[in-house]
Amino acid sequence: MYTICEIKGKQYQIEEGKEYRVDYLNLEKDSSFSIDSVLLVKDDSGEIILGKPFIDNAKVEFKVIEPLFKDKKVYAFKYKRRKGFRKLIGHRQKYSIVKAEKITH
């Protein structure tokens, strides 16, 4: 069984028992939360349920494994020719690692 659900504006294909890296959630370690914005459910028998836009009474329960995980640094270099302008900017994206505990529909 898997679902497609929306977490902080991004869509993820979620299966029970797997870990996912999602945008940073301001939650504590080992805390639980649920998402009810489920777009699609495919159960073990192969039946597909689509929402318009979301499925009523469907939700996914998650457990926070690691609340703050930083990705590797990405650099952006700005440059203007013949002007002597150079600028190096670095950025590290914050993520949370969550585990899908239970899918209900």
Q: Could you write a compact summary of the structure shown?
A:
By secondary structure, the protein is mainly beta. The chain has strands spanning 2-7, 10-15, 19-23, 32-35, 38-42, 48-50, 59-70, 74-80, 85-91, 94-104.
Structural descriptors:
single chain; 105 residues; mainly beta; four-stranded antiparallel sheet; 10 strands
**Radius of gyration based on Cα positions:** 19 Å
What structural class do helix, strand and pairing data support?
mainly beta
Mean residue pLDDT: 94
- What's the main sheet like? 4 strands, antiparallel
Q: What is the strand tally?
A: 10
Integer count of domains: 1
Please characterize this protein's 3D structure.
The chain has about 100 residues and is an all-beta fold. The protein has one domain. The protein is built from no helices and ten strands. It has strands at about 1-5, 10-15, 20-25, 30-35, 40, 50, 60-70, 75-80, 85-90, 95-105. It has a four-stranded antiparallel sheet with strand order 2-1-5-6, with no helix packed on it. A four-stranded antiparallel sheet has the order 3-10-7-4, with no helix packed on it. A two-stranded antiparallel sheet has the order 8-9. A hairpin with a 5-residue loop joins strand 5 (about 40) and strand 6. The protein is elongated and about 65 Å long.
